[in-house]
Design goal:
It contains 2 helices and 3 strands, in the order ββαβα. It has about 70 residues and is of the alpha+beta class.
Length: about 70
């Protein structure tokens, strides 16, 4: 597994809410799917309301989320 940093925003009724989240997945397509699923479930948003602007692969030494560190084996 690899670690990724996903940034973007979603359309909250009052304003656009930015987000930045670290996730572990096999590839970029899988991390995009996982992000849409997670943000949609946490904030009751539809997939079309969520915009992913950037997906970057993170080296293991730059990961700050403990769950992601465990998942990638760092």
């Amino acid at each position: 597994m690899k670690a990724f940093l996903v940034t973007g925003h979603f359309a909250d009724p009052r304003k656009e809410q930015p987000f930045s989240i670290e996730m572990a997945a096999e590839d970029e397509a899988a991390v995009r799917e996982k992000t849409l699923s997670t943000i949609g479930s946490r904030h009751k948003m539809k997939r079309w309301q969520i915009t992913i602007t950037d997906v970057k692969e993170l080296p293991a030494d730059q990961v700050t989320d403990h769950l992601v560190k465990y998942q990638i084996g760092a």
